[in-house]
Amino acid sequence: MLVVLMSLLTAYFTLTRIELGATQASVRQTTGFYAAEAGLNLRAEEVRARFLGYGRPSGTSPSGNNRCQGSNQGSGDFACKTYTISGRTVRTYMVEPPGNPQTVRIPPGELFGNLEAQEYRYSLFSEAIGPDGRTEAILEMVFKSRLVPVFQFAAFYDKDLEINPGPPMTLNGRVHTNGDLYLGPGEILTIEGQTSTAGRLFRGRKDENVCRETDTTGIVEIRGADGVYRRLQCQGGTRRAYSQSEVAPWGGRIQVGVNRVTVPAPEELDPDPGRTYFSQAHLRLRLNLFNNPPTVEVVRQDGNVDFFATSDLNVCPGTIGGPPGRAVGYSNTFFDNREGKAIQMLEVDLRALLDCVHLRNLLGGGVRLDDATYGGLVFHLTVHGPNSRARGNGYGVRIRNGAYIGSSIPGAPRPRGLTIVSDQPAYIQGDFNRNENWIPAAFLADAINILSNAWDSDHRSRQPLAQRRASETEVNAAFLSGTDTTGGVEGVGGQDRGQYNGGLENYPRFHEAWQWSSGSNRTFVTFTYRGSFVNLGSPRKAAGRWCYGMDNCNGYATFHGTYEAPRRQWSYDVRFSQSQLPPLSPRFVYLKQERFLREFERP
User: Fold this and answer.
1) What is the pLDDT of residue 336?
2) Distance, CA of 258 to CA of 440 (rounded, Å)
3) Angle at alpha carbon of residue 502, lines to 500 and 507, rounded to 5°
4) Residue ranges per structural domain of the chain
5) What's the CA gap between 402 and 430, in Å, rounded?
6) pTM of the model
7) What is the per-residue pLDDT across 53-63, written as a single tens digit (0 to 9) for each?
8) Phi-psi region of 499 (alpha: psi -120 to 50; beta: other; left: phi over 0)
9) Fewer CB in a 10 Å sphere around the end CB: N or C, the chain?
10) Is residue 600 over pLDDT 80?
11) Residue 498: which residues within 8 A CB-CB, separation 6 or more?
């Protein structure tokens, strides 16, 4: 019996030791697996970050069978990189297959399906090595990095997006926001394209807890995957949040709580060497307020003045100032009633500037007006003064004479496209890029302001609103700028605090009466716009909050009224989704995992 008992005890202890060993091994492998997975995620995030702006990974992968051993470390973004995670040493490296990049249409059914993107494929490897020096897990992740031009959206916001038009509005393109989405129209809002939000979807307003709807007013309808328009309805007269399950009838055409996508920072518009748009612009102009009188300068990539080009520029004829008029110049005569101050303005006669560029070779190196490096020309315009980086600085750039984007000189080539960039507010005066003469065009600025064809003198800006009547005006260009924040806070913390930011319907800033009464008749003037509305945050230079009519919501001592809204004949320019994008169009980046493998042999 003692022998049998001892045998049983021996067997028990043996099995226990085996089980403990197996458990410990399983724990080590599990810990190693998660450590290796964390290494993959960290490395993938670094790769994604490289695509911001217009960068991409560079370097070489480690080669052969002894990767990440000795001197076999690779280089650049593909090189071996080691992390310490959960007590494990995690070695990672990246491999790029041949064929990058490919221009693809994102497959239907995926988020952002049918949009054009540049797609790069990569394989990431991660090996977790335990405290005893043994390999515990080897993982491989194959992923795609997609760069999607943002001007393929009717509206793309990196913050809360509110769409609350009074008159009927139809958005014939896609809508996406990295924040919350609020839909609360006065009459009817129709959205034709896919609608997605990384935050929450609300039926109703952000500035007050209401959701007004009758059989004929306050209607939101969105087209589903089956082509049927369905109403997104209120409930009980107050704001209503919709979950993903509640929008299932739209067949994936409404997406709630998707992952945020990464967009370029507003600082990319700054006039600093190394910034994307400043460094890659064909022409860089700045109004220098430190000179007396202020002068317009041509600036090189390194931020220094090109004195020869500046001399050539400042003798080019045009309509600015004078007589004699010049192609560019300075003014401080426009009073912005939303900002409550006169604006020190870099003035540009666009047609005359293009004449000057052609005749004086201002682009340098024999570059012509029809240069195709970025799909067309990129001009960077700025104001250099003591308050250049301050909010509410009262600086701006104004573009005139842009109805036809091209030189008036016979035989001069026409630009293939034009993107105008400024870190200061932009003012567009008169028609721009009329449809019969259309080329892909965009404005990237701190804020976008519109002055109609009726604007003939800046003295009108100090007249009462009733005397600042607008006339019909047409602008065809993508817009990227900042917008105010309702309630002063993004997200649900800004709800029910008033201070409406004007919504998508008031994205462009107006300064005239686009409607007025004469006796019993009401006149409405049309502002025609085709393009794309993109927002990357709040303005960094423009400070005046949204005001309407004679409501002096900013409390300025000198105030003449802001504007009366136009009849909005607005639409998304579908040509942007047909590979006719403005030059150097900004892009957002997102990663899509293609497959995830656990390797059992060292690659």
Assistant:
1) 96
2) 30
3) 150
4) 24-152+590-599, 159-256, 266-585
5) 8
6) 0.85
7) 556 788 999 98
8) left
9) N
10) no
11) 207, 208, 487
